[in-house]
Amino acid sequence: MSSCNASLILNLKVKDDALPSESDNLVKQVFGGRVISKLRCCNWKHISDTYEPSVDLSLEIDDANSLSTALESFTKVERIEDEEMKFTCDQCKEKASLDKQLMLDQIPPIFELG
């Protein structure tokens, strides 16, 4: 076996998640953005923000007649009042309904529609 083949085999044995691939980094650089998930306690209005990296958005397009409408639907405030979905607020320490909203925090350099 040539040294090139041996090197290739050794490189293939490295776990995929051990080192980010160049193409993965390129995808994040070109298409990567960040979404904020805002949770607001309906009792005391305490807000909790979670920032999540994103390379895609799942937009509901069935009832949307334009991209603007789909983005408005994606970012609209959703009231969660289901007893099973209530959470304990970090601030007031009570079980509470919550308002949830997703927002675009960082928009990627290229936003592809597919």
Chart the SSEs and their pairings:
Layout: H1 3-12, H2 22-31, E1 33-41, E2 47-54, H3 67-75, E3 78-80, E4 87-88, E5 95-96, E6 98-106
Antiparallel strand pairs: 1-2, 1-6, 3-6, 4-5
- What is the helix/strand order? HHEEHEEEE
Estimate the mean pLDDT confidence.
79
Number of domains in the coordinates? Answer: 1
Radius of gyration: 21 Å
How many helices? The count is: 3
Low-confidence stretches: 1-16
Strand content: 25-35%
Main beta-sheet strand count, sense and barrel state? 4 strands, antiparallel
Helix fraction by DSSP (H/I, runs of at least 4): 25-40%
Overview features:
cysteine-type deubiquitinase activity, four-stranded antiparallel sheet, 114 residues, 25% helix, PAN2_UCH_dom, two-stranded antiparallel sheet, Papain-like_cys_pep_sf, 29% strand, hydrolase, disordered N terminus, alpha+beta, Peptidase_C19
Question: What do these coordinates show?
Answer:
The strands form two sheets. This protein has a four-stranded antiparallel sheet with strand order 2-1-6-3, with no helix packed on it. It has about 110 residues and is an alpha+beta fold. The protein has one domain (about 30-114). Helix content is about 25%, strand content about 30%. It has helices spanning about 5-10, 20-30, 65-75; strands spanning about 35-40, 45-55, 80, 85-90, 95, 100-105. A hairpin with a 5-residue loop joins strand 1 (about 35-40) and strand 2. It holds the Pfam family UCH_1. InterPro entries: PAN2_UCH_dom, Papain-like_cys_pep_sf, Peptidase_C19, USP.
